[in-house]
Amino acid sequence: MPETESTENSRIINEKWFTETPQGKALAGSRCRKCGRTYFPRKRVCVQCFEDGRMEDVALSRMGRLYTFTVAEAGPPGFTLPYAFGYVDLPEGVRVFSPLGGDFARLEIGAEMEMAIGPIRQDDGVDVIGYIFKPV
Ligand SMILES: [Zn+2]
Questions:
Q1: What does the pLDDT look like over 5-16, one tens digit per residue?
Q2: Ligand 1: distance of its center to the CA of 34 in Å?
Q3: pLDDT in tens, 76-125
Q4: What is the distance in A from the centroid of ligand 1 to the CA of 28?
């Protein structure tokens, strides 16, 4: 079963955030055909050009660099503590806000990160599946 399909015990946080590629699931972005600026999540109108009909869908890189992060010791219900989140810069020029996984001791600004898909929190006993970046 594809990893981004909802089941009885899991649900996808937002199907529109993902796209299929030959290498597997990727984040679904959009790129302005006029200025080249790329967005995630997708936008219908480029906020630099303000012209409709100029955006094209693009699959974003699964690899990026950690821009900044924090490790939280307290949080809303459904999160396993501690949990980490931060911003990852992708080669397309997109800064993605993301939960972070893997060994938190390996998190450092500038670290090479890879996107994975998996549970990011629980909601009434159901795993919420989303993207999560982990140190390579
Ligand atoms: Zn533009």
A1: 667 789 999 999
A2: 5
A3: 888 889 999 999 999 999 999 999 999 999 999 999 999 999 999 998 88
A4: 17
Separation of 45 CA from ligand 1 center, angstroms? 8
pTM: predicted TM-score of the whole model, two decimal places: 0.89
Half-sphere exposure for 31 (CA within 13 Å, toward CB): 12
Per-residue exposure over 53-76, b if at least 16 CB sit within 10 Å of its own CB, e if not: ebbeebbbbbebebeebeeeeeee
Counting every residue, how long is the chain?
136
Distance from Cα 39 to the centre of ligand 1, integer Å: 10
Compute, in angstroms, the gap from residue 8 CA to the centroid of ligand 1. 41
* 91 φψ region: left (φ > 0), alpha (ψ -120 to 50), beta (else): alpha
Domain limits, the chain: 11-135
Q: 31 CA distance to ligand 1 centroid (A)?
A: 8
